[in-house]
Amino acid sequence: MKKRTHFPKGWNEARVQRILKHYETQTESEAIAEDEAAFDPPTQTAIGVPVSLVPKVRQLIAQHGAPNKRVQPPRTSSGASGARRRARG
């Protein structure tokens, strides 16, 4: 029996495949440009927070009303190198 995949609301197999194709076919230069564009202009920052303070930080963010925007890849991909996106840290 094949296990059925469950997607979050708004997601489906086609969307997953489109996103996979985008990241699997983009060049390293395209990946870097996309990463840099996500922070231009800088409206958010990333910081290390002790685990014990995470609930308080979440509460402060909620009170501030800061949106939790995620960068979505474009619907089409122009890269064709087959290079996989590499994590940069």
Tags for this model:
89 residues, mainly alpha, 0% strand
Tell me what the structure shows:
The protein has 89 residues and is mostly helical. It has one domain (1-63, 75-89). The protein is built from 3 helices and no strands. The chain has helices at residues 13-25, 28-37, 54-64. Residues 77-89 have low confidence and may be disordered.
For the sheet with most strands, the description reads: none
Which spans have pLDDT < 50 for at least 5 consecutive residues?
77-89
As a whole number of angstroms, the C-alpha radius of gyration is 17 Å
Helical element count?
3
Integer average pLDDT = 79
Give the helices and strands as they follow along the chain: HHH
Distance from N terminus to C terminus (CA atoms, Å) equals 40 Å
Structural class: mainly alpha
Strand tally is 0
Number of domains: 1
Helix content: 25-40%
What shape does the CA trace take? flat
